[in-house]
């Protein structure tokens, strides 16, 4: 069953949605912060504008304050009082206090000037601005100290003019609403532009997705990285590399299936023929036990060859596909070679072959224990098969220094027929057998050296074929990188 990965846990969701969120949410936050800033800036602008107007009214009232017969008086005409009380921008209140703190004119309950209010530095006058509550309404009050004098006295009177905050708040709201309206339009336009931009930018990815979905299962050709953006090209190149590895794997599997079916068809046909002959011989009256035994022995021999071929084919498939059963780690090449030599010693003794083993300590490499054992088995089994009776085989394990690098080396040397120099590259091809090898062992599968090559390649090793001692036989040298850790 195919499950949609987009609906699974831990899904990243839509790229378009994420881009929209990451672009628009911060923009909305910035707009909100800007709105707060605009609000306070509007308050400051309104205060500056209305404070100037309030100071002008205070100065106009201060010009009406004088000293008459030693008393501070405020000559405020009725028309001026009426304009104070009916100002269209809000109600205005005033209070005049004499030199000695006595009430002179205006609203005697107007909130007094607090002691901690500092003089305004914005105007060349002894004026202070403060806010207070008056008759349940917030008011802004300007307090101006005005010198008064005549021939009988001299002093400073206090003129206070207060204004309700309605006009200021109205102006602040108007500035804020105008700004928010413009920013709302700006955000809406920006959202549309971002949506279209994201849609346009993601179009190559959508086209790539459509191309992937429309491809046939057997089409593993590369995608063109030039059709997507530079930031996405590494992903496309990685996809191409993966499909190349997948193509290699599929090709290997097809070749393995073709080779296996071809190689197994012949022994299985022979096995079937031998079985039919055995049945015919068994049905004869009377049957010849000797002929029947020969047929059964032929069947047994063919079965052994078929099992050997099947095992070699499975090993080849495992080596070609880079199987690492048992994991990768430090492996003792010495132990692997010694164990295989002990297991195959009986085969060597049966042919009267002198099998020797020599190791320079415990030689370690990084690799798969199972695949490494298969490599040694194939090398030593080939040496035993192609070395004549009374011959010699030497297995050696040690280190070799090349430049500044240390390498682990496995050598298998025999006194057999060897491999001509012209065939040493071809023997690594599956099912290829040199003419000299066919003469010595006509029932071979031709897979041993191919298996050795694939396992060595999986371990980063190098294989060298050379003549044995005294230019006789074959020397196979496999040079591995030494283990990186103990």
TrEMBL record:
Protein's organism: Herbaspirillum hiltneri N3
Coiled-coil intervals, chain numbering: none
Residue ranges annotated for the HAMP domain, each copy included: 199-251
MF terms in GO: kinase activity
Entry EC no(s): 2.7.13.3
UniProt entry tagged with the keyword Phosphoprotein: yes
Catalytic activity: ATP + protein L-histidine = ADP + protein N-phospho-L-histidine
EC category name: transferase
CDD domains on file: HisKA
Pfam family name, one: HisKA
Stretches that traverse the bilayer: 21-40, 180-202
Chain ranges of the Histidine kinase domain: 259-484
Cellular localisation: Membrane
Keywords per UniProt: Kinase, Membrane, Phosphoprotein, Transferase, Transmembrane, Transmembrane helix, Two-component regulatory system
Protein name, as recorded: histidine kinase
Gene3D superfamilies per UniProt: 1.10.287.130, Histidine kinase-like ATPase, C-terminal domain
